[in-house]
Amino acid sequence: MPPRSNNSDKILVLENEQEVFKDKVQTRADLGVDGFIRIRENEFVNIDKGAIFLAHFNLQHTSHEVGKVYGLVKILRNGHYSGVDSVEVLPLLDLSQVYIAEGVEVQNHLSYEDLTNEHFKHSLPNIKNVDNLKDVICDRYCESMPNLNKEEIVKLGVGFTLLKFKSI
Question: Residue 142 in contact with residue 150, Cβ under 8 Å?
Answer without folding.
Answer: yes
